[in-house]
Structure formats: C-alpha cells, structure tokens
Amino acid sequence: MLLTMKFLVFLFILGPVKDCFAAINLETCRVALGMQTKEIKDEQLSSSSTYSEELLGARYARLGLNEGAGAWCPGNPISKDHNDEFLEINLLKLTVISLIAIQGRDNAESNAVEYATHFKLVYFRQSELPTDDWRRFEYRNYYNYTVMLGNNNPSQAISHSISPPIIAERVRVYPVNPVDVPLHVCMRVELYGCPYQ
C-alpha cells in the first residue's frame, strides 16, 4: 500500500513537469536572453567576488564583448577546495533556459590566458512556501552530471544544451577547477531560452 502511494505521488509530480516541457518548443526556445545586447542590465548582474570591480566586475561578463578589462574575474583563484565563486544573472521573471555559452578573457595587452575549463549551474525560483524565499536547484543533465566542460582557450566561446531545460528566475554560473593547482579564471556568458508561459 505504501509503495503504491509513493508511486502515485511520483506520477502526480511528474505529470505536470512532463506536460510543461512538452509544451515548450525547444527549436524556437533558443533565443539569446540579452547578455551581449545588454537587454540584461548591469544591475541584474552580481558575483561572489571580483578581482577589480572597476575593471573585472560582473557587468563585464558579457559574451562576445571586450569591455572593461575583458570579462568577470573572481577575486580568488579557483581550486578543488575553493569552487564557491559565482556569477549571478537575475532574469527578473521565470525563464526557460535551454542553452548556455561561455568564453574566457581574451586580453591581448597582457597575453592573459584566463578561462574556466569546467563550470556548473545553480538556479533559483521563488518558493511557494511562506517560510522560504527562494528554492535552490543544482543543474544535472540526463546523465546526472553537474559539471560541464568549459573552454580550452580564452577567446573561443563554447556552448552547451541545457538538457533537460531549466526554469529559473536567477542563475549562477560557477567556474570549476578539477585539479589541485589554483587558477585565476575569467568568464563571459550568454544564456539562451524563452519566457516561461
């Protein structure tokens, strides 16, 4: 009886989620959400830290643009033991995210080679519970991996399908360093998707 009840609860929860994604046309839900065009405003961007707010702050984390000193760079090096630096993008409303592109910092003046070889996503939605403001989720792909491959050079962007897509109001991109040697990393980002209906 208990097993039957658990199965019915699982079907009840799965049903609306399955219907929700069935209603999303993933072929057309891949529009750039506005990092590059600045439809996502500077005040919607924040970070855990920055090496220099004036030159490397979150507002410079825009894919394809080379403003400020060229990207967002966290204030601390990233290592296996220090992977808690993040760039946060506040989309201001529920949005379907189906693709992400990231890029490093291509600074010809200093010949800097600063990029994230791996990264992960954490996202937030407003909670419907009165005791909790935001619900936090860590993105996992269909293979249950949380960490995605990043860049192998500072200038070329790499993109990843977010599959299954996520529905979020705020997104955090965490650079990840899988090796013991601490690295200074920098990122530029674009999110792709469509408004959640």
UniProtKB/TrEMBL annotation:
It holds the Pfam family F5_F8_type_C. Keywords: Signal. PROSITE patterns: FA58C_1, FA58C_2, FA58C_3. The keyword Cytoplasm does not apply. The keyword DNA-binding does not apply. CDD domains: FA58C (cd00057). It comes from the Eukaryota. Residues 28-194 form the F5/8 type C domain. Residues 1-22 form the signal peptide. InterPro entries: FA58C, Galactose-bd-like_sf. This is Discoidin domain-containing receptor 2-like. The gene is LOC102802705.
